Amino acid sequence: MASEPSLNVASEYGVSWMSCHPLVVMLRGVAKPSSAMHVARVVGRYKTTAGEQREYVSHLLRRTYRDGGKVKHETLANLSALPEPAVEAVRASLAGKTLLVAGEGLEVTRSRPHGHVAAVWAQAQALGLPALLGPPGRHRDLAVALVIARVVKPGSKLATTRWWADTTLGVDLGVEDASTDEVYAAMDWLLGRQDQVEAGLAARHLAPDANPQRMALVDLTSAWVEGRHCPLAARGYSRDGKKNRAQIEYGLLTDPAGRPVAVRVFPGNTADPTAFVEAVDTVRDRFGLTDLVMVADRGMLTAARIDALREHTDLGWLTALRAPAVATLAAADGPLQLSLFDQYDLAEITHPDYPGERLVACRNPLLAAERTRKRAELLAATETALAPTLAAVTAGRLHGADRIGLKVGRIINTYKMAKHFQVTITDTTLTVTRRQDQIDTEAALDGIYVLRTNVPAQTLPAPGVVTAYKNLAHVERDFRTIKVDDLALRPIHHRLEDRVRAHVLIAMLAAYLVWHLRRAWAPLTFTDEQPPTRDNPVAPAKRSRAATRKASRHRDENDQPVRSFRALLEHLGTLTRNHLRVGNTDTAEFDLLATPTTTQRRAFDLLDAAIPNQLK
């Protein structure tokens, strides 16, 4: 009697008990809950002959009914012999759920990468980036999508619009069908709001409360341009080594930690000091910050720019002296003598040519050794390059002072070493000798640099001056992020001037996101989480032992894999959002996220965010 109802139930619900464990998928369906039958779990206890307490669990198929106002239960079958999944299947069926065999009636209609865009979106939301860009609307959604795409999958605007449709970013922000005209209109809209956006970032990161050091870092770099019709494209000093290409230049303003705040685009032949003037005007006139110290390298912050700062603003400055000025300080009876560095690597000096300023002289022995090595190699390379010309003159194959001079002139400064050679030319002879006295004089200053600032010592001691100047390395890190490592700004393909400016602005906002993402995800990447504090600011930075071990093993202390920043984003992209359909009806459809890996869960935990099913 116990087995017959069980078989009837199996026949009624179409379930094969022994096969339902791995295959049954339970979904809320159309069946009405049964009030007559249910599966009861009954726990019984007994004591063995040895005195041990034991218990057994029975699963009973029961019918509930009323008899004279009392609720009674009738056992129809004992299901205890069935596998646990089979029992649960019966329980679910009686509760009104529909049972389907996996692969029959359940279809994955679309699967889109989700994790990477969801993580960057979560960081953007945490930073309030959408609200910072402007009021809600189509233009803002497109602008946010452009910034996120620049972080996750940098590419041309046409490639970006196609990529949107293949990820949840385009679907959730409603931009998957955006045309290139709409994208360009959004870029124009964003460029029109650049001043408001940057003012908001400056209030966050350069205002006195957020920036107790009262410092801002400024630097300039370049990116080459493809095409011949961009008004900003011009030939100038290329930081990318593309001497035969027209380029643009852009200057970046950051806080002391290198967090991007503002960017300005210039023609490709703009001199560094001109970019610095623009940065000063931005800080003073647009951001309203007057009590700030501008930190820039010696190419940007020249003596003329310092004179202008002193005359027209209350801004402070911190930069380095050029090599000729350092040589003047080190001349006979000058204040910069090598004996200053007998016990310490830095010393503070004064000179009448720099009234009201502090001069902090530093000597880095490792830098000195590197410059000595490099000079020796370049001198040898120059002599090697000149050797065929010397041989040709000696053999009489090359003669005439004019012809010899032209040949030597094309070669001698290839490695910027012409200043260290004495060249004597006649119609039949060529003599090239090293100016050893001059080489020795230059070598004596190897590894020595002098910083200049008007910040008082009580506000910024000498070690702090060195640290502040070395913080310019943060801006260089931002440039690598924008140009090479993460955001692929270059080359520039836009033709219109405003589109180039908008393109660079998008890259700067993407760099702002990457700055925060890299720090949040440091435990998952090769980033040094706790770099050692330098007791000597002149000494080079070092990696911690933990970071070195992580880099060598490609695993963290918990034996979990670590990746590069780009590889981590790619791994997050494997977390997909899948659209499923039940049966042949369009009404029973739903989205289901793939099960995240340990790394994917931790990436969102480090952002203090849950994994969202939808972005918006």
Q: Could you explain the architecture of this structure?
A:
The chain has 616 residues and is an alpha+beta fold. Among the domains are: 3-104, no CATH class; 195-364 and 447-516, Transposase Inhibitor Protein From Tn5, Chain A, domain 1; 366-444. It is 41% helix and 20% strand. The protein contains 22 helices and 18 strands. It has an 8-stranded mixed β-sheet with strand order 9-8-7-10-11-16-13-12, sandwiched between helices. Strands 2-3-4 form a 3-stranded antiparallel β-sheet. Strands 6-17-18 form a 3-stranded antiparallel β-sheet. It is elongated, with a radius of gyration of 36 Å. Residues 1-35 have low confidence and may be disordered.
State the low-pLDDT regions, or none: 1-35
What shape does the CA trace take?
elongated
Determine the CATH topology of the domain at 195-364 and 447-516: Transposase Inhibitor Protein From Tn5, Chain A, domain 1
The number of E-state strands comes to 18
Portion of residues in beta strands equals 15-25%
Helicity range:
40-55%
Highest-level CATH class of the domain at 195-364 and 447-516: Alpha Beta
- Measured on Cα atoms, how large is the radius of gyration? 36 Å
How far apart are the termini? Answer: 57 Å
Quote the average pLDDT.
87
Largest sheet: 8 strands, mixed
Strand order in the sheet with the most strands: 9-8-7-10-11-16-13-12
Q: What is the CATH architecture descriptor of the domain at 195-364 and 447-516?
A: Alpha-Beta Complex
Task: Assign the structural class, choosing from mainly alpha, mainly beta, alpha/beta, alpha+beta, or little secondary structure.
Answer: alpha+beta
The CATH superfamily of the domain at 195-364 and 447-516 is: Transposase Inhibitor Protein From Tn5, Chain A, domain 1
- Supply the number of helical segments: 22
